[in-house]
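Chain A, query sequence.
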Amino acid sequence: MDSLCSIPAFYSGKSVFITGATGFLGKSLIEKLLRSCPDIKEIFLLMRPKKDVNIEERLRKLLTNPLFHTLRREQPHCFDKLIPVKGDIAIENLDLSDTDRNMLIQKTSVIFHIAANVRFDITLRMSVLQNVKATRDICILGEHMKNLVALVYVSTVYSQLDKHVIDEIVYPAEVDWKKMIQVVETLDEQLLEVFKSKYTGCMPNSYVFSKKLAEQVIVDYSESLPCVILRPSIVVATLSEPVKGWMDNFNGPVALFIGVGKGLLKLIYADKNIQNNFVPVDTFSKSAIVASWKCGVRKTLMALQRKIFINNCILAHFTLNNWDIRNESAISLSDEILNDQQEFEYGTVLSEGVNVITYFEDCIIGAKTHLLNERMDHLDKAKSQFNRMYWIDIIVKASFVIFFIWIIYKNTV
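Chain A, predicted structure.
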């Protein structure tokens, strides 16, 4: 394949398989692929039914998200390319039927493995089975795909937070991922939790521990598969595409802004000197697509940086420590793009020179409209509510001060 093949041309006629399609990152990736690669053949979406809702209904509901409004207006028939596939990363071999498995094997050219259990409080067993074993099952599936040109695994930069300098390499793990799977499948779950710290070591939770092991899975299978590892940091609202400030959850720093804006949050447990690590979700999507393109046309193993969806206000470990994160290779992706490919804004893969204040102003507006379902023409009402909360806070504090002064006065008289 011509190494100078454009990104839309690379995806023309290709079938893509995405896990984690219903999540924050998955939605953004789907939208970007459909909008910027109009000749893509089809996108298979691994989805599991929920209660009484089947995967077809879940897909219909997903497409009502405001993120897809531009596509619905400009390319209304592109959604016909989305094909839900029943499966579950928590079940052996992804719980795929033989028919769906054979279909994926015959048709898939690019895999984006995004799905993961990102909760910090899950058991070691769940994190290993859903984040490590599922990654192994994806790789096994990929080995049977004759047309596979790229397998993009979405990790997290925090999978290596035990190092002060995090370079764009895969560091060896202290625990063998194969033995870890055997352990969690053999030991009683309660007993496993007792010995949890023995396995996770200095990792603050089982999630980042499992993502570190999953990277080793990718490394081992990269001998037979064209693999790429993405390591985003905290993934937050869109920078510009297809709308500014879009998000569909309350994770990350925007949740703090909402709390402050509503007058509910006065203190944040953090070090003001700590560098914030975040990446807009549309930047993530562009990086994932460009990385798969480069892997597909050049057959090279890439180790990219930046990933995840970690709530900065939950664990102090991330807000009270600094890491020197290298991203030279990620930035160099922009050098791979031809000048005639600027139509879809791939020229700048990473957001350099972004005005952070302006960006988060857009995030706040996005949070107000997309998360709180509040209208921008009701700002006077919102300001009045904020002022009420502000004065309530002042009055309560003043009352406590007066009360304690009175107590001290009474005890000294």
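The chain has a mean pLDDT of 86. The first helix runs from residue 7 to 11.
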